[in-house]
Structures are given as C-alpha cells and as structure tokens.
Amino acid sequence: FCGSCQATILGDVTSDGFANVLDVVQIINYVLGLSSFTDTQECLSDVNEDANINILDIVTLVQSIIG
Q: What is the pTM of this model?
C-alpha cells in the first residue's frame, strides 16, 4: 500500500512528530470525505497497516494515544 513512510510515526498525518488527537480528527475528516490527503498522509493514516483507511485505523490510533 505504501512504503514511503517507514521512518515516520504511523498516525502522524499532521507531521508534527506526534500521533495525537489532532491526527485523529484529520483521519476522521478523511474517512468522512471532508478532506483529502497526500500519498504520505494516506500511508500514515493506515495505522493498522491493512491497506485500508477506515474506522479501524481511528480506533487503533485512539487506543495507542490513551494507552
């Protein structure tokens, strides 16, 4: 699916060095069709690495944020 984001943090679509709630909001907007992503952002959004960007990625990212 990707390969261009291996050295970065999965879920960090805002590229601020952290995967946090701002990234969750961005991915939700993408899944709902309210925003578009670059190829790198799409890659970083696939948090569970199943080649799809969907609610499962959002849940996985939220779980990793809250620990």
A: 0.88
Distance (Å, rounded) from C-alpha 50 to C-alpha 5?
Answer: 15
User: CA 20, CA 62: separation in Å to the nearest integer?
Assistant: 8
* pLDDT digits 0-9 by tens, 4-18: 566 578 999 998 999
- The runs of H, that is alpha helices, within 1-67 are 21-31, 39-45, 55-66
- In tens, the pLDDT along 37-65 reads 998 899 999 999 899 999 999 999 999 99
Q: CA-CA distance, 43 to 7, in Å (whole number)? A: 12
Reported residue count of the chain is 67
Q: Answer for the pair 29, 20: CB distance below 8 angstroms, yes or no.
A: no
Q: How far apart are CA 59 and CA 67, in angstroms?
A: 12
